[in-house]
Specification:
CATH topology: Ubiquitin-like (UB roll)
Strand content: 25-35%
Largest sheet: 5 strands, mixed
Oligomer: single chain
Number of domains: 1
Order of helices and strands: EEHEHEEEE
Distance between the termini: 30 Å
Mean pLDDT: 81
Radius of gyration: 14 Å
Low-confidence stretches: 117-122
Helix content: 10-25%
CATH architecture: Roll
Number of strands: 7
CATH class: Alpha Beta
Length: about 120
């Protein structure tokens, strides 16, 4: 638990590697991931997404611990079936561990997610 200035510990797991960030209370998970050079998107949706408005369901992550209560309709339905949570709709209010999904089905196609942004993504 990170106490300084009302911060939380965000552990991000991808491809067996872990990265830990100190994150301000109330930060948006999608924006935090992108700001750290990590992407919740698959290759196809890196540019073709809704920009964090909860409309396209392409920024899904698995929340391993510290899961917030589902507020968005997609997350409420998905939580019943164990589907990924939309990172754009998660506000970080406690310590949490999220797993970036590297194998996604996007628009009916299998796509391997690019978890690290390249220089052209910035």
């Amino acid at each position: 638990m990170v106490d300084e200035l009302n911060q939380h510990q965000l552990k991000i797991v991808t491809d067996g590697e872990e990265q830990v960030l100190a994150v301000q209370h109330g930060a948006n998970l999608r924006r935090t991931l992108l700001g750290a050079g990590l992407s919740p998107y698959a290759t196809l949706t890196r540019y073709a997404n809704c920009g964090g408005r909860g409309l396209c369901a392409t920024c899904g992550v698995s929340v391993d611990s510290g899961e917030p209560i589902p507020i968005h309709w997609h997350d409420r339905i998905g939580s019943r079936f164990g589907y990924p949570r939309l990172s754009c709709q998660i506000t970080i209010e406690r310590d949490m561990t999220v797993r970036l999904l590297t194998d996604k089905w996007v628009w009916g196609r299998r796509d391997l997610a690019r978890t690290r942004r390249t220089a052209s993504d910035k």
